[in-house]
Specification:
The structure is a homodimer.
Chain A (H helix, E strand, L loop, with lengths): L8 H6 L5 E3 L5 E3 L2 H5 L8 H11 L3 E3 L6 E3 L1 H20 L3 E2 L5 E3 H4 L3 H7 L4 E6 L2 E9 L4 H11 L8 E10 L13 E11 L2 H21 L6 E4 L11 E8 L5 E11 L1 H6 L2 E3 L5 E3 L1 E8 L1 H10 L16 E5 L5 H18 L4 E3 L7 H10 L4 E5 L1 H6 L1 E6 L5 E5 L3 H26 L1 E3 L3 H10 L3 E6 L3 H11 L2 E5 L19 E6 L3
Chain lengths: 510, 510
């Protein structure tokens, strides 16, 4: 039996040909072939890796209904951290939560022409309540502009009632043809902000304020670098004046739209008659915005940070920030376990989300793999020798680097390590994005980039929908955002060669 | 122009015949006839008072869809406090949140016979997704046992997987004939816990543990005293082995079921094939529970604590625990306002949910009425004279008692007052319940009680559904709960006169 170095364990765990391995610390680990079999290697098949890891880490599960998934506790807890942090950012900027009905009368949905055209094909319709056929079908909300605007027209009378800054956390349903867990599901959870303002300027400021909050949240909490900017007409929200988005680059070179903020102008206020008396006593339609992010963010997080061993969850939104694995040797329940329990209590008390894995039905090695697969940022090992030395071992999930830490310094060192991991994940993703962003000046170049390696492609664009459509037809790439500053050196449309009005970022997208 | 005493203001505000009143402090208050007109006196018409106050305090609003309401920010914030506190109690007892689909295939709903019989008449059915007619209708969940059990049967294999302790916060839809805001709406928000256990005993313990959490929460947070106990067969949940409930007495003498906890036994696990390998390697069906409370709790809170001036919200769940009203006299913006702002900042920093009403478009008197109507437990007044004396005035929402408090002692005194209000609200409600609970030994006596003043009626009952049905037929009262201890002196069934097996509590109910 070979004695492997500690640092080799992950490698070993990933082969399927061993029966048992011996840890450097002398722990015997029974094999768990099934454990690894269930996760396709990320480098082999990114798409299967994605669904495997979701299933294996118990983030979500499929139901018998197409595109309807269950978010399991471990996945839902990530959502809870996303929710609580975003909610705080919304409230700090003056927004309040409310709750509007799940259903929208068909006639309401039809009031804004572009809106109904965009959403009607995706709507789930309720036509029976009990045994009674409804006079008017009810849409299960695909988004709530219509029902919310119908209420705003009752509530808003005067400039004194403005701004209205309301958000709701809710489920929505869109009948999707192709679905993937978290990324595109028939039902999903999201938040949708719906605001009304006195002026076009105020609405525009709000649109950008929320876009910026999304960018900050994605980068600071999810450790996902995003580009932000306006969408082209072809890609904007059905009924909006303009749509802004944050876009993240996934490791397969495809872009993921991770949040949108819409300036609705007066489109909905005119359709729903949301009028107010202005400060100078005229009647005016309100200027509106809406903005949302969804459980799709969890999909982004899985893809951006994961590796062949499974998930890597950024500490700020991780259900567990650290897991304590006692090294179960000899009479460990009398010697090691009480120390581990002390550590657990003190970390928990200090507000660390920590779990003590004291199960005696699994070996430490199995537990290491399990918690790595689940993406816990830091593993804390404690064994008899550590206790003698008054230390514990911290293991960084990203690179499995170990550090030996005096128990007295644990809180400081652990916090430092968590912060470092949060930062490193972001930097790593940012480097990937930089490495996979190129500038292309012709459609042929862009087509080649997309075919060979995808990524973000910066190009000139004349602003014409025709040129945009040609790119899509030839490469399947779309304009993800219009960059807010024109890049020097990009001054011609990549399709028609006319003067470029904008620098845009193309990519294939989810 | 008459000068009224401060303590008379409320009275004046409630008459509709004045044009202006003068406060003792010399503030002129413009009339706001509409303000009061919109709230029916509670003593005149309790039911209208209830809907008036909901509308006027902007807790909720109606939509054009029958029974579908909007929970407005001020109402939703109460729900947020209910949620966060209950959620903590659930997590402290080992429960995790998850999210299951909104839709349930019709065939799933039919698996448990009693369950479908109970809920099918209330189900909203989705039969179209976009333009495509579905092969199988989907129920919009009226409760989630069916969809959750279908997943549990996949997840649970061994006793090691147990207990499963999952809760979800969700919206549900029940097609109700008669609806009232918060109390009975077509869609409502709730939480539903769904657990699976190794043994009947464990399931029963969980059922009672959660019942007890509901009781504690209702009493400690909502300041609503509740009785708890088992339901009779006639009143139990469709599909349960036994149902337990907490019941509160409303000021109109009717009972409100405020939370339920069901021991499902093996009914659902057999219907959905949730089987596990036991510790001694047999196969066994899991024992299950489910339990829930809903936005109905807000309805209970409104009714139990409100008065003729509007809402009274218990401090622990109040969106605002205190409101600061600066007395706007002379150059108050230079003198009073800065002091008020300082108070506001220090209270906010100390974690008090506080609002500074610095609007100059309203008089202090108007603001007093407004915030009393909205049920803010404590008003803090600060005027020029108070500043001279280094004091503020605290006004208790329950009885409008004032206390003059040195600014240095404000935090302590305010906290004391908030705690006192929390306690006094409970005591007041408890006294009301005691005063309105009687023992009746005959059906005639009970009928008279119900007709004359309602309330809780303690009686003997032989356990027969026939006797129970006779009471309902004659009085419309139902058994709210079976008391867990037999009361001495009640030893005959109030209908048939046979030996009483149980002491039960009858009431008319919402």
């Amino acid at each position: 039996m070979t004695v492997h170095k500690y640092s080799d364990i992950k490698l070993l765990v990933k082969t399927e040909s061993f029966d048992s391995i011996v840890l450097q610390r002398g722990e015997r680990m029974s094999s768990d072939k099934d454990f690894i079999k269930q996760i396709t290697k990320r480098s082999d098949d990114f798409s299967r890796w994605y669904t495997d890891v979701i299933k294996r880490a118990e983030l979500a599960d499929y139901t018998t209904m197409k595109g309807m998934m269950v978010i399991r506790p471990y996945g839902y807890e990530i959502w809870e951290h996303i929710q609580s942090n975003l909610d705080k950012m919304f409230k700090d900027t003056g927004h309040k939560n409310a709750y509007f009905p799940l259903f929208i009368p068909e006639s309401f949905l039809k009031k804004e022409a572009e809106h109904v055209e965009g959403f009607a094909p995706e709507v789930a319709w309720v036509s029976f309540g009990g045994d009674e056929e409804l006079e008017e079908r009810l849409a299960v909300r695909p988004t709530s502009e219509a029902i919310i605007c119908s209420m705003y027209s009752k509530w808003i009378k005067s400039w004194r009632d403005l701004p209205v800054l309301i958000n709701q956390w809710a489920n929505v349903v869109r009948w999707e043809k192709v679905t993937r867990p978290f990324l595109r599901t028939t039902e999903f959870l999201w938040q949708e902000g719906h605001t009304v303002h006195e002026s076009a300027e105020d609405a525009q400021s709000e649109t950008l304020r929320m876009l910026n909050i999304y960018k900050t949240f994605a980068e600071d909490y999810l450790a996902i670098p995003v580009i932000s900017g306006m969408k082209s007409e072809a890609e904007k929200f059905a009924g909006a004046e303009s749509t802004y988005a944050i876009e993240a680059l996934m490791p397969d070179g495809k872009a993921l739209q991770a949040g949108t903020s819409h300036n609705l102008g007066q489109n909905f206020s005119k359709a729903f008659n949301i009028r107010f008396e202005t400060r100078d006593q005229n009647l005016e339609f309100g200027w509106q915005t809406s903005w949302g992010v969804s459980t799709r963010l969890i999909g982004a997080l899985i893809m951006v940070h994961g590796d062949d061993s499974g998930l890597v969850i950024p500490p700020r939104v991780a259900p567990l920030q650290a897991v304590i694995v006692p090294i179960s040797r000899g009479n460990w329940k009398e010697t090691v376990l009480p120390e581990a329990q002390k550590l657990f209590s003190s970390l928990k008390e200090a507000g660390i989300r920590v779990y003590l894995d004291d199960r005696d039905t699994y070996t430490p090695g199995w537990k290491f793999s399990e918690w790595e697969m689940r993406g816990v940022p830091v593993r804390i090992e404690i064994g008899p020798k550590d206790i003698e030395k008054g230390q514990v071992v911290l293991v960084n999930r990203i690179n499995r680097e170990k550090s030996f830490v005096e128990i007295g310094n644990l809180m400081i060192e652990l916090n430092n390590l968590l912060e470092k991991i949060q930062k490193d994940l972001f930097e790593k993703a940012l480097k990937y994005r930089k490495d996979n962003t190129v500038t292309n000046k012709t459609l042929n170049d862009l087509a080649q980039t997309i075919e060979e390696k995808r990524g973000f492609v910066r190009s000139g664009w004349c602003g014409s929908p025709d040129c945009e459509a040609k790119v899509k037809e030839k490469t399947a790439a779309t304009i993800r955002v219009i960059d807010n500053k024109k890049e020097s050196g990009i001054n011609k449309c990549l399709v028609c060669g006319k003067d470029s009005t904008d620098t845009v970022i193309f990519a294939k997208s989810y």
